[in-house]
Amino acid sequence: MAAIAAAREGAQVTLLEKNEKLGKKIYITGKGRCNVTNACSQEAFRSKVVKNPRFLYSALDAFSPQDMMDLLESLHCPVKVERGERVFPVSEKASDVTRALEKELHRLRVGIRLNAEVEKILVRDGAAVGVLLTGGETVPADRVIVATGGQSYPTTGSTGDGFRWLKEAGHTVFPPLPSLIPLTSDEPWVKRLQGLSLKNVTLTLKSGKKTLYSYLGEMLFTHFGVTGPLVLSASAYLTELAPEECSLTLDLKPGLTPDQLNQRLLRDLDASGKKQLRTLLMGLFPASLAEEMPGICGIPASTLCCDVTREMRQKLVDMTKALPIPVTGTRPLSEAVVTRGGVSVKEIDPRSMESKLVSGLYVSGELLDVDAMTGGFNLQIAFSTGMLAGRSAAL
Ligand SMILES: Cc1cc2nc3c(=O)[nH]c(=O)nc-3n(C[C@H](O)[C@H](O)[C@H](O)COP(=O)(O)OP(=O)(O)OC[C@H]3O[C@@H](n4cnc5c(N)ncnc54)[C@H](O)[C@@H]3O)c2cc1C
C-alpha cells in the first residue's frame, strides 16, 4: 500500500520483498478469506485498537476503511460486509486482494524485486539514504519506508527484521509479545475437554476486580488449553499481565440468571430421582462437559440426583455462571495473529509516519507499537499507515 501511494504521487518506487511472492501473510488472513477491513466509524474503529489508538487519527483520516473498500472495488475486487461490519472479498479468496494490489503496483510501474532481503538501512548524517541487501548490494534511495511487519507467523516473512533496524537507528522498540493468541492451561479437566466447542457463552477476563474483557461468543478447548474468537480477543488484554494477575471465567448459561438456573436445577433434580447427576446435566451441557461438571464442582461422579444437597446445587450454579479457567500463559509469539509491542509511536510523526529521529525514514504497519482486536482492524491499520507513509515519503 505504501508503494502504491508513493507511486501514485509520482515517485519512482522500488519494492523489496524477501519472499518469492508478495503479501504472503495476506493469504492466510481470515482463514484464507481475508477480513480486509471493518466498515465501522472511525470512533468505533479506534475503540477496537488496544494499544495507542490515538496515534491513528491522521492515518485513518488519510485512508479510511471506506477508502480501502473503494480501492478494492476500483481494482475489480468487489467486497461484501458481514456480521460485525467485517469486510471480505466477495470471492472469499484472500489471493484476490493480493492480486488486485499487485496489479495496481504493475500499472504504476513500481519496481518489484522479489527474493530481495534487506540486511540493514543505510543512514548518513541523520537521514536514510538507502538499504543494503543480504547479497551485499546497496540500493540507494532518497526515502525509505519500512513495512516489514511484526514477528508472528515468521514463515510468512515477518521475522522482526525491522525491529532490529529501527533499534539500530536509535528508536525505542518495545519487546514483541503475542496478542490475539490461544491460551495455555495445565488443568486436567480443560485438557480432557479438548475438541469441545462452545457457542453463546460469555468469557470474562479480570485483573483483580477490574473487568478487562467480557463478551458473548464462541470458544474451543484444545490439548494445550483454550482458543477460538473469545479467547483470542481476551488475550489482547492479557499479554502484558502475568497469568497469576488475571482470572478468566466462563458463563456457560448467560441467558439465565443464577436464580433462574437454580430453579431449573431444582425442578430437574426433583423430577430425576435415581438418575445419575451427570446424566441430568446432559440436558444442560454438551456431553463431555456434563461428564466433567460434577468433578469440577467437587461432587462425586456417581452422585444420584436424589442425593444432591443444597450446597452441591449452589456449587453447580456458581460454576455454571462463573467457571474459572486456570491459565498458565499464551502460546508462543510465532503463533500469534498479531505482535504487540514494536516501534514507539512517540518517535514517529503520526501525520506522516516519518521517524522523528532519522529523516527520510518512514515506518508503517505491524512494526509500530499499535495493535487491535480481530475484525479487519489490523490489516486496515497496515493499509492506512502504509498509505500515509507512501504519500508523505513522495512529497
Ligand atoms: C493467521 C493470521 C490471520 C490474520 N487474519 C487477519 C484478518 O483476517 N484481518 C486482519 O485485519 N488482520 C489479520 N491478521 C493480521 C494481519 O495479517 C497483519 O496485522 C498485517 O499483515 C500486518 O501487515 P504488515 O504489512 O505490517 O506486515 P506483513 O503483512 O507481515 O508484511 C511484511 C512483509 O515484509 C517482508 N519482509 C520482512 N523482512 C524483510 C526483509 N528483511 N527484507 C525484505 N522483505 C522483508 C515480509 O516477507 C512480508 O512480506 C492475521 C494474521 C495472521 C498471522
Q: CATH H-level name of the largest domain... which superfamily?
A: FAD/NAD(P)-binding domain
Which quaternary structure do these chains form?
A: single chain
- Give the terminus-to-terminus CA distance: 16 Å
Characterize the largest beta sheet: strand count, sense, and whether it forms a barrel. Answer: 7 strands, antiparallel
Per DSSP, what share of the residues sits in E-state strands of 2 or more residues?
15-25%
What is the CA-based Rg, rounded? 25 Å
Quickly name the level 1 CATH class of the largest domain.
Answer: Alpha Beta
Number of helices: 14
CATH architecture of the largest domain: 3-Layer(bba) Sandwich
Number of domains: 3
| CATH topology grouping of the largest domain | FAD/NAD(P)-binding domain
The helicity comes to 25-40%
Shape: elongated
Classify the secondary structure makeup into a structural class: alpha+beta
